[in-house]
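User: Can you model how adenosine-5'-[phenylalaninyl-phosphate] sits in this protein?
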Amino acid sequence: MDNIIKELYDDFIGKVQSVTSFDNLEKLRIEYLGKKGKVSQLMRDLHKLSVEGKKNAGQLINKLKSAIQENLSVCAEHLVATEYDRCIADVPIYDESLIVEKPLGSYHPITLIQRTVEEIFRSMGFTIEDYPEIVDDFNCFQALNIPEFHPARDMQDTYYLSTGQLLKTHTSAVQNHIMRKYGSPLRAVFSSRCFRNESTDASHENTFFQMEGIMIDKGISISNLIYFMKTMLSEVFKCNVLVRLRPGFFPFVEPGFELDINCLICGGKGCPSCKGSGWLELCPCGMIHPKVLEYGEIDPEENSGFAFGLGLTRLSMMKYGIKDIRTFNSCDLKAMSQFTNL
Ligand code: FA5
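Assistant: Here's the modeled complex, given as structure tokens:
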């Protein structure tokens, strides 16, 4: 048995060293650690041994299992790192000193990213919605479980009109309209400019773009939310970017999350674009609060859903390697002409 175990381990090491994809890694895991895998077979063969032999071989098999698991984890980490290096290498860091001579105009980088993301969601059955930039207090706040004087309003000060209407602070302002328009089930995305009273810096503007996404049906769960977020990001970047999900509070979702992307400008080392943290807040999301469903005339007893608010301008920064968000609204033709080839 000792020799069989040793041979099996040597054989595994030879294979794991030549793994170049997550698919192959998973196949290898199943081949060795799956229910019908080689290690389980060894366990099944134990009954052929004496009591003492079983004890020794059992211990060796357990060690073998741990060693295989360890090697699989190391290999997975290596694949993630290689994939991430490729992501960073693919970001075409934008150089504003470069002058591109091109007589023709081109789409703005935010239009490009908006269309890319809309196309991804359209292919997954989402409708593309449109709505005015001027909204009322009910849609922007109250229908989102943010009553008058709620502290969550402090972070979203904006421009008010003499009519009492306001320039929308976030695309969530259209959730109620979409819910009433379709009822359940629904899948929709909606992009728009948003306006906030902000101190600007490399990642904050007073005027920026977001994309709202909502999906409501019977039995929608956080797994659905994570699936759609992962699919969207891997389709946009064509590689596995590093993201982290942490708890986040928004009165209109429960539970709520912050989804951050590892900064592709600096590779996570820390730079002005990510305020030195290596991470950029990109796409808060969560499960729609029952009260918000009620405001949208959808029965929360029967239905559930998720919503996300993707920072489209920041996504464009990460995709095209634009270090400073203020470039987008600079009206600098020299800067914008860099994107004519995208
Ligand atoms: C919101 O606006 C929520 N409506 C998002 C949401 C939707 C949560 C649905 C849950 C469910 P937040 O204020 O964090 O959340 O903004 C969302 C994203 O918009 C941020 O992660 C960021 O990518 C972008 N963003 C926010 N403020 C600015 C700004 N001043 N400049 C550029 N991008 C911004």
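A couple of observations from the model: The mean pLDDT is 92. Residues 170, 172, 196, 198, 204-205, 208, 210, 250, 253, 256, 281-282, 284-286, 307-309, 311, 313-314, 325 surround adenosine-5'-[phenylalaninyl-phosphate] (CB under 6 Å).
User: Helpful, thanks.
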